[in-house]
């Protein structure tokens, strides 16, 4: 048995149809689902933070990662160059 755990459920996750602590009969199915979840969360959620996948034996964990600062300190307002 393999489980996908979301370490900290943000508001976007709580509003999404995704589920925490989902269990699969085999590790391959869990990994495919976990990769899909991480991609969905990084592509479709608000973008305040990113998500990364880690593996621990038979289980997978998805954790928030710190937001990436804009390159060179630019705020993205379009006036830096």
Question: How would you describe the overall organization of this protein?
Answer:
The protein has one domain (2-68). It is built from two helices and four strands. It has helices at residues 11-15, 27-44; strands at 2-6, 22-24, 50-56, 59-65. Strands 2-1-4-3 form a four-stranded mixed β-sheet, with helices on one face. β3 (50-56) and β4 form a beta hairpin. The longest helix has 18 residues, at 27-44. It is elongated and about 55 Å long. The model has no long low-confidence stretch (mean pLDDT 89).
Please bin the fraction of helical residues.
25-40%
What is the radius of gyration computed over CA atoms, rounded to a whole number of angstroms? 15 Å
Major sheet size, sense and barrel closure: 4 strands, mixed
Q: State the distance separating the first and last CA atoms.
A: 53 Å
Separate helix tally: 2
What is the overall silhouette? elongated
What is the total domain count? 1
β-sheet strand percentage: 25-35%
Could you report the average pLDDT, rounded to the nearest whole number? 89
Low-confidence stretches are none
Order of helices and strands: EHEHEE
Task: Report the count of strand segments.
Answer: 4
Spatial arrangement of strands, main beta sheet: 2-1-4-3
What structural category do the secondary elements indicate? alpha+beta
